[in-house]
Amino acid sequence: MYKVFFLLLCFVSFVFCESHIVPKFEFRKDENHKNIAPALHPKSHINIFLPSIPYSYVAKATNAALIRSYDNEQTWVYDLAKSHQRVDDFTYIFELRENLKFQDGVDFTMEDVIYNLNYFKKHPLLYTNIDKIDFEVMKIDKYKFKIVLKQRYEMFLTDLARVYFYTKEYLDTYNPIGQETGTANKEAGAFGLGPYILKEGFALGEKQTEKLELVANPYYWNKEFPKIKSITVYTQLDINEAIKDISSKEGELDLMPIPFNKKLDIILSDYAKLIVSKSTDNFVIFFNLINGNKNLQNKKIRQALNQALNQENLLNFVYKREGEISPFAASINYPIVKKIANEYKFEEIKILEEEIFTLLNGLTLNIFTQDRFMFLLKGIEFQLKKYGVVFNYTITNSEKDIYKQLLSTNTNKNTQNWDLLVWGDDDWYYQNPWTVFFIYETSGAWATIGRDDLMQDYIQKYFVSKLGSSEYEEVTKDILFRAKDMAYTLRVPSLNKVIAVNKELLYIPYEGGIIPLWEIQITNNHWSIREKKEYDENLKKSMKALRIVE
Q1: What is the CA angle 469-151-114, rounded to 5?
Q2: What's the whole-number mean pLDDT along residues 495-521?
Q3: Around 148, how many Cα atoms within 13 Å sit in the side-chain half-sphere?
Q4: Which of 46, 123, 183, 404 is the most buried (most CB within 10 A)?
Q5: Which pLDDT score, from 0 to 100, does residue 24 have?
């Protein structure tokens, strides 16, 4: 009887959350586009919670590069540059926009370009292959310059979206050398060229303040943006308290990603609405093959853990159908991953049910996770329990704790004993599976897989394969198949973005790891600017979820 009631409850919840018509339930129509507040209203302000890669999201809002990642076929648009030409495999010519200024109002000149790029060459970021690539920068005229690579490297243009430009003061005083995460927000101040200025706080990955304050840059080159005067970013909050803040209160939180089992809370909220969109973000569940449970060294046990999971049930009951099953750890929403999944067959050796039980029975795994992923882990634990697998949890509300352990494991310096670690690998490299592939590069801090020379050969080929070429497709397939065969991660379905947003915000998510803070708008009814203290009762009516999923 209990099971019947439980299934009925799940079905009703699922149908309701999918915005089917519920008898006698009236949704409020979203007509925010008719009541948009003036841009940069002096009191306009929003509060957001970024539990995953806040350092990257904030860096993209407070800094500028030659190009910026974007949802289009080429995956980027021009930012500080207005045009470029790739002369050959090694040579790029860029032309800058005119009248660019730093956030302090000082002109951004060709000398700043040369100084920044030469500084970057000495202190590159460490999560692609750019740190192994030498290049020269040459001024052509007041607005044009040339970059000549000394080695072939097909990820260079994509890397440039993460090469930000700073004042000489920031470079010389704060020394933002490349690291495994980011150093773009090492110190607050008007040091960059992005749409927002970091006024207070910092976010570096392993270290961050719990709160950052952003203020609109009056010298941003694109006068259409930003729209909101100031933003508070929270980096570590208790997930359940945060959901209460955005759903039951006004003025506490205006935007946050939510666990999928909290959709109904948001749909029924007086103050929040639900936005769901297609995503190239990833949930990565690492196996610790460096110093974790020795049983995980057995590839067959890792394969058994993966095969024991019913992906359909995860998608239906844990994800609440907010995603799609992928045969790989990388999101199925990457076009190249979807193409390979559809056109190539991975020959997986199926393990019999009885053997899975024999392999897994009595296996105890120490789980290290942020609280935001407990909904996922509890669903996985429920399935693995029948095979005798036991989970022991260590839970944090801060991603910096995750980085502290994850990025020290490859060198055996982690202080937390973990076997499985969950990370919100939002698509920081943007529309490119390198966002996931970089965890297989064993020379880097992100790998927890041990030695794999074959995978390293594939990765080196990936660096020099042109996007869209047959070579690129082949090596992408090789990496996906190798990672799946070795069962380097515990695979789960690809996810949609599921976001709680204040009802008086206008916001369209990007597919990947960018939150375009500069594009967000508010209405005249938003708590930060409206004259009336109380929120109108008529506006408290529930709103249908906005679904932007193909």
Answers
A1: 110
A2: 98
A3: 6
A4: 46
A5: 56
Question: Are 176 and 191 spatial neighbours (Cβ–Cβ below 8 Å)?
Answer: no
What is the length of the chain?
A: 550
- Which amino acid is present at 202? F
Separation in Å, CA 54 to CA 27, 158, 181, 246, 515: 33, 20, 11, 18, 10
Q: Which three-class secondary structure state does DSSP give residue 548?
A: strand
The dihedral formed by the CA atoms of 13, 17, 22 and 24, expressed in degrees to the nearest 10 = 100
Does the pLDDT value for residue 545 go beyond 60? yes
Range in 14-18, 365-369, 403-407, 514-518 with the lowest mean pLDDT: 14-18
Closest of 197, 186, 157 to residue 61, by C-alpha:
197
Residues whose CB is less than 8 angstroms from the CB of residue 452 and which lie 6 or more positions away in sequence, other chains included: 440, 442, 482, 486
Residue ranges of alpha helices (H) inside 37-164 are: 54-62, 110-122, 156-160
Residue whose C-alpha is closest to residue 538's, from 3, 31, 50: 31
HEC letters along 140-195: CCCCEEEEEECCCCCCHHHHHCCCCCCCHHHHHHHCCCCCCCCCCECCCECCCCCC
- The whole model's pTM is what? 0.94
Q: Distances from the Cα of 357 to the Cαs of 251, 295, 307, 387, 546, in angstroms?
A: 50, 14, 11, 5, 42
For 377, 383, 409, 420, the CA distances from 292, given in Å and listed in that order, are 18, 22, 9, 8
The 3-class secondary structure across 335-362, one letter per residue, is HHHHHHHHHCCCCCCCCCHHHHHHHHCC
Rounded Cα distance between 197 and 64, Å, is 11
The type of residue at 458 is: Y
